[in-house]
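Obj.: predict assembly geometry.
Materials: sequence records (below).
Method: joint structure prediction, all chains together.
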Amino acid sequence: MIGLLAPWLLAGTLLGGLPLVIHWLTRARVIPRRFPALAFLLHADAGRARRHRWRDVLILTLRTVAVLAAALAAAGLVWSGAAASGQGRPVAIVVDASASMGQVVAGATAWSRARATAGRMLAQVAGRPATVVVSGLPQRDGGAVATDHGALRTLLAEAELGAGDGDPAGALATAARLLGGPGDLLYITDLSRSALAGVDPAGLPAGVHLELVDAGGGGGNCAITGLSAEPGVVLAGRAVTVSARVANFSAVNQELRVQIRVGAAAHVVPVTLSPGGIGTATMTLTPESSGPHVVSAELAGATGDGLAVDDQRQGVLEVLPALVAVVVGDGDREDPNGPLRPLLAACAAAGLTPHASDSAGLAAELAAGSGPALVITCALADGAVVAPSLDRLLVAGGAWLQVIHSEADAALFEVGGRPTPVRLAARVDVSEQEAGRMLLGQARLEHPLLADLAGQPAVLAALAAYRYRLTPNGQAADAQVLATWKDGSIALAERPAGAGRWLVLNASPAAADTTLAQGEILPLLMHRVPDALFPARSGDLARDVGAWLPGTWSLANGSALAVLDGRVRLEAPGVFRALGGKLAAAAVPALESDLRPIDPGILGLSSRSADGATRLVERRPLWPWLLALAACCLLVEGLLVPRLGRGSR
Amino acid sequence: MSALAAIPRLSAADLELSARRVVEGLYAGRHRSPFTGSAVEFRDHRAYQPGDDLRAVDWKAFARSDHLLVRRYQEERDLPVVLLLDTSASLDFGTPTKADWCAQAAAALALLVIDQGDRVRVAAGAAELVVLTPNAGGPAAMPALTKVLAGLTPAGRGDLPALLSGLAARLERRALIVLLSDLLTEATALAQPLAALTGRGHDLAVVQVLDRSEVSLPTDWGRSRFTDPEGVVAELTSDTALAKPGYDAAMAAHLEACRQVCAGCRCDHQLALTEEQVGESLGRWLARRQGRRT
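Observations (raw structure tokens):
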């Protein structure tokens, strides 16, 4: 059977008419003449004309055949025939063992059909060099191609379905490498999106022909495709909302029930999803203790669910101890009119655990702490004393709120070589304060730090404070101005510094100097500090199956995972425990849940059915022969035509 | 056929038309006659037969040989010349056309004959004789002859053997027949009619008039679609550069065959090309003819 790899290039066969067109365009003009001695001309011309007519036909045929052969070679003409025993191109069979292959269609999993198909194909190529690659977790292969298929059959019999993505691109690359040159690469898969993710046929070595074999699939499926928590930094004693993302990859409406568990707490959420819809089930709770909490979500009520492994998902919610907030100031902490007391009160009201310190004691405070730290400086006597400690804080990922109450606070222009987000422009005199220019001007309420203030427009409109005139610091290009006063002076600014955050609040918190306390502005601001200033955690509470973790980990039942180069690989869904008690969860990659098949034609690939006429055929590219034919035609023309006489032109 | 603008005059001293064989004529002249009679030049004796004129008996010879012999004389009479022009459509070719060239040559010959005091007839036709003027002589005959020649138009399919046979049937007396034709016919087909004419005592000269392109096919004609003016051969498209070797060989063979046929019939054959001057070509022929006579 003859086939084409690039049928669109078959249009090149139209060039076969090119010799005819050239002949027609360049033929000599015929001049009509009366000639009395025509009988002698006829006698002389008869043999020659007959000979040249044959010569012209021969030339035309040779040139046309040459052009057609070249066009067919470009179109990738292949001969397909039954594979003969003991000969033929090497074959590599890649069996998809990703999680999606566990889908059940017509009472059997795609994985079982794929494995059976691979066995059948092995039998058909008996005697041909062949190998098998199982693209699961871990990926397994039968080594370089060989004519003895016993080991390959054993490999297939022992292969197990994985719960990961199968790494199709890596498996195909492995198969191409094992072929060791030109050959046929047969990829038995369910044609789901994950099965073709990253597959690039153009990246295969020359001479390797990839063909997809449809193992059957494409059933409907509903899945828990994600688990997340809000806020990203979960602190003991602070409310957190756990969300389970639910997807409906079936063609019908689904009335689902999602049960979310966090430790002993459980909550069932009904979710209605249209075909292709994605919804969220949430549960809000306040963890009382810090440490890892196992979170799970389980799906029930799905109709025509093809894949069970993604109907539940486990994750680990890391609950941090209450955030340590150190208020550093050299003033009187108990003075009701001083700046430190309102700060301590605001931290406590925001759920933080504040305590006071002074410039001299800050270093010891930071050395003793274990969790993330928030340092608030205000009313410093000498900023240079605390600067080294603040530098270490930022390097370690801590957050520093620089509250400018005095000129000494504003004089901390640089810490550890890092420029401050703002710089002092001038003091503000009393007349400006009386003129109302102390009022808040603009604020970026969409910023997480100011999110809680968005519902307080009246309070914000009346907000006033004694402050300095600060302008943006051109040396800190990454600084953001979050709020300004009426006169344009900066009220609130921040920038990343080291691994942490540097926040500047240009307002004296002393009761006599500001209206911050009246609207409880400071508690609202401090409540958002952990989320806004500390880096958010990973979005999902579980890693994808197949992810690597450093250290030594064990399954929930205590079985240790194999350590490779100091790392372990999470090869199955579930919860894993590290030696130090740390927990981690792995779940089926979300892409594996989408079982809807895609057309392999978008990759320029063809596919065949695994259950139909699956007789393995060998495809031999004919382009070398076609090019040789074209060359022979031109050679014959060059050698033969001069012997038959020159052309008429 | 176009008008004859200028008739080349041939010098009588250099180009004297003379008959190689005895031609019967109506008037006595400088040419020897094959017939015996009251002429002046003794030829031979023959045995007396009853009924012979006794005045012809050579008594001196009877006295010497004791046999009764009769004198026979060869008379000199003027030479009747028949100019036979082939007017088939194939003559309408060349530069000038072969028909024009033949007319000019015929006029020149007629003038030469008349200047010598002989008489001339013009005959013409393609497949059959359509023109045959009466014998004419003297200066006054020339305008009528040129008028006839100017009126000849090449047309129709030629049949030279039939034309020659027709002429032979129409001639009562022996004559010098000058055939002006391209002889584009089978040479072997000419043998019988030519032999018939010479067998009847006519002196025959064939002037074969061809264009240079007919003798040697030009190479610069390129690819051409040829048609036969007489419609005998079907249309042919050919490349002259490719066909030239074969054509030239075939034409050379035909010319040689024509020469052979003429030689076999004891008649002159002269090839003339239309590119040559009529006087030059005829002068060469007549000089050769006179040399052969002497």
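Conclusions so far: The two ends of chain A are 43 Å apart (CA to CA).
To do: check interface contacts against the pulldown list.
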